[in-house]
Every structure is written in C-alpha cells, then in structure tokens.
Design brief:
The chain is α/β, with parallel strands linked by helices. It has one domain: Rossmann fold, CATH 3.40.50. The chain is 43% helix and 23% strand. The chain has 10 helices and 9 strands.
Amino acid sequence: MRTVKREDGREQDRPDGAAAIRLKGEAARAHRAASLTGWEEAAPGWIARQETLRRISAPVSHWMIDAVDPQPGQRVLELAAGLGETGFLAAELVAPAGGVITSDQADAMLDGARRRAGELGLTNVEFQVLNAEWIDMPVASVDAVLCRWGYMLMADPAVALAETRRVLRPEGRVALAVWDSIEHNPWALHPGAELIERGLAPPPQPGTPGPFALADKQGLRDLLAAAGFQEVWVERLAFSQRSQSFDEFWETTLDMARSFHDAVLARPEAEIASIRKSLAKRLQPFAAEDGSLEIPMQALMGTGTA
C-alpha cells in the first residue's frame, strides 16, 4: 500500500500490484475521451442485442442485487449502467418510496435505458450522465451502488471506488462485477487472438484499462479495502453465453464488441470471410451437434460495506 496524490489534489491510499491501474495526465484524458466516443458509437448495437445481453448477464445481475439487498424506500445508484438492466431489478425492490439512479457517461446508452424503463413501466428511475471517477452527487446520498463491468474500463478505478465510497451512506453496500482472466473467457480470448495473430489489433498492455484489467482476485480485494470498504468479499462466478449458431455469435460480437467490429469490417470481404471461418474453427470445441454454441464466461464479483 502507498499514498498517492489524486488529480484533484487529495491524497489516497493505493494498493500495489497488478490491479492498481492508474493512467495519468494526457494518457488519462485521451482514454476517457476515446471511451466516451466508443460507448456512444456502441449504443445502437447494444440496444439491438439487449435481450441477448439480459439473458447472458442475468446470473451476474442477480448476484449483485442479492449482495446489496435493496429494501423498500432506499436509493440505489447504478454506475456505467449501459441499458440499466441491473438497476431496474433494484427498482422493483425499493418501490414505491425508493428509487434508482441509472447513470452512464454515454447519452446514447441512457436513451436506450429510458426506452427500456418505459417498456417495463418503471416510474421510480431517474437518469443521469455521470462519470464514475467524479460522481456529481453529495456525500452519503445513496444506500447502494451497483457497477457491472465498469471499473475495469476506467482510467483510475481506485479513484472511482473512492468516489463510490464517498456517496454511500454508512452501512451502504457496493456490488460490482469485472471479468476474470481472459483464459476463463474464451468468448473474448478467441476473437481477440484472431485479430492479434493477423496484426489487426495490438496485444493488451499490462497496467492499462480494458475488459480484463482487474482480473486479479486479491488485487480487487485490495482496491475495495483501499477505498475504505469493510466486510470485503470477492468470489468467482461462472456462467455461459449460449448462441443458437455460430452466425448468431458472430453477429452478436460485431454488435457488442466495438473494437472487434471496427477491426473486422475495415478489411476486404475476402479477409472478413477468412476471419469468420477461422473463428468458427476456434470455437468448434463449444459447439453441440445441432450447431448451437455454449461458451464459458467467468466474472469476479465483489462487494463491500461503507
């Protein structure tokens, strides 16, 4: 553990080790700008595939809801909410007097979340554009915070967790999910390897934000503890991505993985066909006789008390 000075001038304890990601200065600003642009552009694909996303991520969302145990009358904040699926589960539990703040940095994602809330008839959800590294809310203003697959993508997840701790009321709880190591997630391992081997994407750089940047169980515990959380618990959760065919997996990946989408569709048609054929071969071990795929996924789930 070491003490560092944040960009806002405040000091903060920060754990050593692989999970202690921190971009600084121009690198951090560039990452945040690129992240915002990427998520605004990715929103249409996520909206198109929201049923698939809800089905795949249901075990993760339900674990998180169980961890914070929302009660009637409470106020729940979801950070990096995307289309808001996890927070909407909490909205039903805190009604009628309680409410949920569905937040994301991308307006386009929140537009999709608003439409989904309308479809569900939810009237106790508000929507805010927020960056989790500086949450524009008062101290001790919410009873629970949810963040599914968000902290790992941030320039400074330690600061984001400290902000999460700041806005939680005493005894409030956080529940989060990040991806476990890529070896446990062949849904990402094989498309990524295909691009890297063809020179279409660089290998991931250690110590930088990304889907697998916090894939360190002890490191995640340390981050939560350094942010001031008590009763910290981290565990692995295995589930799977089911697709009726490789074609469905391919189209879903193009819609939801912006970097894969951009790298692949920039290539000539013959090369796209070659990438598709090679990836189908890589995923053959997960195929059933009827052509459907069941591909393992694994997340690290964390919780702590303010």
